[in-house]
Specification:
By secondary structure, the chain is an alpha/beta fold. The chain contains 12 helices and 16 strands. It has a 9-stranded mixed β-sheet, with helices on both faces. A 5-stranded mixed β-sheet has the order 11-15-14-12-13.
Length: 343
């Protein structure tokens, strides 16, 4: 696979040049940009794959929505619908996507969750249909058609953009010079212990001022069954994932679980009945009455629609909720609130 990616280097350079020219056309005013007329915060990245956008958006909205009416705008990746839709009690992963559905399940009526492929159309229709103080745009760093007020760039600790390259040789959507559009950088998925020397090296190589860089790590909660009960896991686990990078969850589990078997599917995979049958067959091979089938919270959003109630009762399905811890959390929150609360 690595050899194939290296072979595609000329295509990566061409793709990078195209994205660079596109960005320059926006910078020079050749392409129109819609200035969002209310407070807006973007959470995105330079690369494809999971850098932890969902828990970071949740973290932001948790404290912003306490004092400001807030709307989350997402593309709704993986949904089978098109156009502008607002999440409601009938929403599923098929209609709005797994990430927006997780936001809706988390915040319910406290926060509006909207999906739209065009961020410009999405913002305009949000402002036409509801009063909102703040719009949080999920994964829109490359959507230059809209101008946000505050931009947060996420970078995976295990794969920083300064050691990556353009698609398809690497995982970058654009050259790393695009980082200059960001107001703040959060280094995600950090180990629990990160020395100041390590932090300083990352800060220097990232090219951001030290005061503009924050570090976060994932916190896994107690497993929850699909029937909403807490579950203790300490023996055999069949880990089923349809996310871009399940490594951190696997490493978390092996610290206290006797044995972890894995079944991985593509990112945002829409599970089928055939998939479920294969998963259950694999689970039965564990031959352990205390074993569980464990998945992620995002996968749960896609799985719950296809798993019939009797299947949930027959097999011990559960998921692990996640949150984040961020260093200098008080400083970060104060910066965001200061931006949102200014006239």
């Amino acid at each position: 696979m690595r050899c194939l990616r290296n072979f595609l280097l000329p295509f990566a350079l061409i793709y990078g040049l195209i994205t660079w020219i596109r960005n320059k056309f926006f910078d020079w005013g050749f392409f129109s940009i819609y200035q969002i007329p209310v407070k807006s915060i973007l959470v995105g990245n330079l690369s494809v794959g999971g850098t932890g956008k969902t828990p970071h958006v949740t973290f932001l909205v948790d404290f912003i929505s306490q004092n400001f009416s807030t709307t989350i705008l997402s593309r709704g990746y993986g949904r089978k619908t098109k156009g502008y839709l607002e999440a409601n009690s009938h929403a599923t992963a098929l209609t709005i996507g797994d990430e927006p559905l997780s936001y809706y399940k988390r915040f319910h009526d406290k926060v509006s969750v909207v999906v739209c492929e065009s961020r410009t159309e999405g913002v305009k229709r949000i402002l036409q249909s509801k009063k909102t103080d703040v719009i949080v745009l999920d994964d829109a760093f490359q959507h230059r058609n809209v101008q946000v007020g505050f931009s947060i760039l996420l970078m995976d600790y295990t794969k920083p953009f300064y050691r990556d390259f353009m698609l398809p040789t690497g995982d970058l959507r654009e050259f790393s010079c695009g980082k200059k559009r960001a107001d703040r950088l959060i280094v995600t998925k950090c180990p629990k212990v990160l020395t100041e020397i390590e932090k300083n090296e990352i800060i220097i190589r990232s090219g951001f001022p030290a005061s503009h860089v924050f570090f976060s790590n994932i916190v896994y909660g107690e497993a929850i069954s699909f029937s909403s009960e807490s579950v203790k896991i300490n023996r055999n686990v069949l880990l089923v994932t349809g996310i871009s990078n399940p490594t951190s969850l696997f490493e978390y589990l092996i610290d206290f679980v006797n044995n972890v078997e894995m079944m991985t599917f593509p990112d945002h995979h829409m599970f089928t009945l055939s998939d479920i049958q294969k998963i259950h067959t694999k689970f039965e091979e564990l031959e352990d009455s205390s074993a569980v089938i464990l998945t992620t919270e995002k996968d749960f959003m896609r799985l719950q629609a296809i798993l019939m109630k009797e299947e949930i009762g027959k097999y011990p399905w559960c998921y692990v909720p996640i949150s984040i811890l961020i260093d200098r959390e008080k400083d970060f929150i104060e910066e965001i609130i200061s931006y949102v609360d200014t006239i």
